[in-house]
Amino acid sequence: ADSLYVSEYFSQSAQKLSFYSWYGNAKLFHFHVPEDTVLLRWLLQASRGKGPECTSMEITVHFRHGAPPVINPLGTRFPANATVRPSYNISITLSSAVQNTTFVNVTTPAAGDWFIAAHLPQAAGRIEVKGFSTPCPYMFQADMFVLRLTDMPVLEPGVPMPHTVVSPAKPLHVKVFVPKHAAAMRFQLSSCVTSEQRACTVRVLLGSITLPQSFQRSLTCTGSTNCSLALESPPWEKWLQIMVESLGTANASVSVEMLATFTVCRPGSSSSFLNFISLNQSQAGARLGAAGGSAVAAAGAPRNASGQRSSSCLQSQPVVREDLDVVSVRYRLLNGPGVPVSSLAPTLLLLNLNTGMDSGGSLVVSLLLNKTSVSLANATVAACVSAASPVLSLNATQNCSTAFSQGYPLSVSTSSAEATLIVLYPQTDDWFLSLQLLCPRAQGGCAGAEGRVSVFAYLTPCFNDCGPYGQCSLLRRHGFLYAGCSCKAGWGGWSCTDDSKAQTVGTQNLATLLLTLSNLMFLPAIAVAVYRFYLVEASVYTYTMFFSTFYHACDQPGVAVLCIMDYDTLQYCDFLGSVVSIWVTILCMARLKKILKYVLFVLGTLLIAMSLQLDRRGVWNMMGPCLFALLIMVTAWVHHGAKRRHCYPSSWKRWVFYLLPGITLAFIAISVYAFMETNENYYYTHSIWHVLVACSVAFLLPPRDKHKKPWAWPQKLTCRYQICQNDREELYAVT
Q: Three-state SS for 496?
C-alpha cells in the first residue's frame, strides 16, 4: 500500500562555485541516506549572475557513496601505488538561461553517507586584485528526496517465505541480514505463479546501487522452476536489499517463494586473547581491574579455536586502532608487525574505518615479506584489501572481488619483498586485509608452507604530507573534515607528485633572485630622499625594501626559501610598507608645512595599518590612501598656484624630466600589477612592479627646500661656531 512509503526531504545551503585548480576549489555536499530507502532523487540547482561578466559555463558534478569523490579534472598523475577509480559525474550547462535545474534518480540506493562535489572548469591562472574586477557568481545547491519503506519485510535465513508482487508498477522489496563471518550466500526463488495461473517472468535485483561503481546483481527467473544465485563474501553485519519486479502483464499479480541461506565461516585465531590483558597491564594497569574478569573469562575461546586451526576457514589477527589526530589513525598489531601467513587459510586483519570521520584521508597499507621465513623459495603471499567483507578465497588469478564490491590486490614474494597500497578517500566501512601463501603448482609440500609478513597500516590526511612541493590543508564542510593537497612550483597531482610542469631548481632560484633583488631598486629612491633631506621618507622606503625582500624570500613555492620570521608577519609588514610608501611620497609632493605633513604621516599610517588588518588584499587599502593623498596634493598645488598666480610647479623642466616620467612609470606599474600578473609569470611581472614603483618614487620626490644647503661635511663641522656667532650678532643688534 502507498501508506507504507514515507517521503523525506533534505537540503543544504547553496555554495558559490570556484574555478578548479586543486581539490579545495570543489564544493562538497554531504548527505545521509536512511535505511530501507527504495528511491533517491537529487535536485541539482545551478544559477549564475546577470551581469555582463557572466558567460556560458559548464558545471561538473561528481557523486560517490561512502566517501568524497576522487576527481581529476586537470588530468594529472596520481602517486604511485594509489588506486583510482573514475568518479560518476554529470555536466550542467548554463548558457542563455540564468538557472538550470537537473534531477538525478537512483533506485534502491545504498544507505549511509553520500557525497556530491561540484566545480567550474580549470582556473585560468590569472591573479586578480580584489576590487579591480567583479567575478561572476556561479551558485550551486543540492537537495535530496528519499522514498523510504517503513515496514520492509524481513527474509529470515533458511526459512522459505511466500510473497506477492502486486503489479509491475509496484515491485516487491524485502531485506535479509547478513551475519558476521558469512563466507557465501545463496538466494533461491521458486513457485513463481501469476494470478492467471500462467508461467511468470520476474527479475530479481540483489544489493543496492553505489556510485561511482555499482555491483548490484541481477537474476531473471522464468516459469515455476527453481532459480538461484550464489554470492561469495557478502557484506558482513549489513542489511541486504532484494527487489523483485514482475515482467508480465500489468494487471496480473505474481506469487513467489524466496529462500536465503548462508555458509558461515568458523574463524580461528593464531594468537591468544591474553595479549589484550598484557597490553592493558603494560599501558593502563589501573583500568584492568574494572574489566579484568570479563577479559580472563573470554581468553579460553581463542585457545580452542587455535587448536582447530586446520578446520577453520580464516585466521584472525588482533588489531588495535589508535587515533592520533583528525583524519589520522594508526593500526597496531598486538603480536607485533610480523603476521604469520599459511597456505591453509587466509589471515585476516580488521581495519576499522566506520566512525564516519575517516573517509577524508588516505589509507596506506604496506607489506614487507621476511624472506627467511618462507619455507618455499618460489612462494608468493597474495593480499587483498576490501571494504564491507573480506576476500576468503585468494588465488593467483582472482581480482579481489567480493559479492558487491571490488577490492585491491597486493602481492609480495622473495623476488619482490615490498608492496604498498594507497586508497584515496576510503569509504566509511569496516576494511579487511586478507593474506594467504600461494605455492606454485609444480612445487609440492605447499600444505606445510608458512611465511611471515610485516604489516604497516595507517590513515593519514595527505599521503607523504603532499611532498616538498605541496601543502596539506584540512577542509571542512559543516561537521565533516577532509584533506587535500595544494601544490606549488608547477607541481601537480593528488599528492603533488606530478612533475610534468614542475619548475626546475634553477628556475626557482631565478624567481627568488628576481623577486628579492628587484627591491634593491629602492636604493636610488632612498639616496635621493636622503640627499634632499627627506629622512622620514627615506626611512619608510628602507622599511619597505627590507620587508619586501624577505617576504618574497619566504613566499617562494620551491626549495629556495628563507624565512627570517613568521610568514604572516612578513606579509603584513610588506603590505604596510608598500601602501605607506605611496602615502608619504604623494604627501611629500604636496609641499605641506612640516607639522601638518608629519601629522598626516602618522595619522595615515595608523589608519592604513587598521585597514590592512581588516582586509590585506582589498583594492581600496591601496587606492583609498592614494586617492586621498592625491586630493590633498591637488588642493595644495592649487593653493600654491593661486598664491603665486602661476602654474605650480612652475618649472617646465620639473614637469618634463621628473613628474611626467614618474607618473608614467607609476601608471605602468599599476597596470602590470592589476591586469598582467598570472601564476606562471608572477616572478618577473611582480619584479617589474618593484622596479617601476621604486623608479617612479625617485622621479616624483620634489627638490629640497631652498634654505636647505646640500650635504657638505666640512661645513657641518663648523656649524656650531657659525650659529653662535649669528646669535651674538642678533643680540647685539637688538640691544
A: coil
288 has a pLDDT exceeding 50? no
Are 5-149 and 505-700 in the same CATH fold?
A: no
pLDDT digits (tens, 9 = 90+) for 469-489: 899 999 998 889 999 999 988
* Phi-psi group of 465: left, alpha or beta (phi > 0 → left; psi -120 to 50 → alpha; rest → beta): left
Residue linked to cell 597499507: 365
- How far is it, in rounded angstroms, from Cα 271 to Cα 319? 11
Can you say whether residue 335 is alpha, beta or left, with left for phi > 0 and alpha for psi between -120 and 50 degrees? alpha
Q: Where are the domains of the chain?
A: 5-149, 161-264, 312-460, 505-700
Whole-number Å distance between alpha carbons of 353 and 517: 51
Query: How high does pLDDT run on average in the chain?
Result: 84
Q: Which CA distances in Å does 367 have to 211, 370, 456, 704?
A: 29, 10, 7, 76
Q: What is the mean pLDDT of residues 574-587?
A: 94
Q: ∠ CA(557), CA(559), CA(562), 5° rounding?
A: 85
Q: Which CATH class, in words, describes the domain spanning 312-460?
A: mainly beta
| All three cell numbers of 723 | 650659529
Count the neighbouring beta carbons within 10 Å of the beta carbon of residue 649.
18
Strand 418-424 to 82-83 pairing: parallel
**pLDDT above 50 for 661:** yes
Cα 604 from Cα 610, distance rounded (Å): 10
> In degrees rounded to 5, what are phi and psi of residue 507?
-65, -40
Please tell me whether residue 491 adopts helix, strand or coil conformation. coil
With contact defined as beta carbons under 8 Å apart, do 191 and 244 qualify?
Answer: no
Q: Is the pTM of this model over 0.85?
A: no
Classify domain 161-264 at the CATH topology level: Jelly Rolls (2.60.120)
Residues 630, 642: Cα–Cα separation, whole Å: 18
Count CB-CB contacts under 10 A for residue 448. 10
Q: How confident is the model at residue 293 (pLDDT cuts 50, 70, 90)?
A: very low
Q: So what CATH class is 5-149?
A: mainly beta
282 pLDDT above the threshold of 60: no
Q: Which stretch, 4-13, 47-56, 613-622, has highest mean pLDDT?
A: 4-13
Query: Reading across the β-sheet that carries 172-178, which strands appear in turn?
Result: 172-178, 238-246, 201-206, 217-222
Here the cell at position 722 is 657659525
Tell me the CATH number of domain 505-700, given options 3.30.1370, 2.40.440, 1.20.1070, 3.40.50: 1.20.1070
